[in-house]
Design goal:
CATH architecture: 2-Layer Sandwich
Number of strands: 5
Order of helices and strands: HEEHHHEEEH
CATH topology: Beta-Lactamase
Radius of gyration: 15 Å
Oligomer: single chain
Structural class: alpha+beta
Largest sheet: 5 strands, antiparallel
CATH class: Alpha Beta
Number of domains: 1
Number of helices: 5
Helix content: 25-40%
């Protein structure tokens, strides 16, 4: 098992957030440059892909089930996520995902902004997520 590495130790945010947008099905419609730099993917590789292309196998399914439940209720979700880079490395991000509505108040997608997770929180989250995965098995 790889030692948890906070994203800001290996992949610099340089004070900018990772931003992505998806449609209502979770298909990526926009990524900012920092998202590409941190994930190791080009925008062309990400656009049109399901956002779970970045899902690390250490992430419990229950976390995402709760996230979708929150979002479907029209509420912004706030979660810590371990993501998988294209090169197989990983990064932890503190994520805020919000529903996006059009002028007619119809849900049209989601926007997510991410920042580095505090180093002190990574091991705690990793341990908690491992327990959840063990319960899912």
């Amino acid at each position: 098992m790889q030692k948890p590495v906070p994203v800001d130790e290996e992949f610099s945010f340089e004070g900018r957030a990772i931003v992505s947008e998806t449609d209502v099905e979770g298909v990526i419609t926009f990524v900012n440059r920092k998202f590409c730099e941190i994930s190791g993917y080009t925008a062309q590789e990400l656009l049109g892909q399901p956002h779970n292309i970045l899902r690390h196998p250490d992430m419990p399914k229950t976390i995402f089930a709760e996230m979708w439940k929150t979002l479907h209720a029209g509420i912004t979700a706030h979660i810590v996520i371990k993501n998988l880079r294209k090169d197989g490395k990983f990064f932890w991000v503190d994520t805020q995902i919000s529903p996006v509505y059009n002028d007619d108040s119809m849900l049209v997608g989601y926007i997510a902004a991410r920042k580095p997770v505090a180093t002190s929180d990574i091991q705690e989250k990793a341990d908690a997520y491992k327990k959840l995965i063990d319960q899912e098995s």
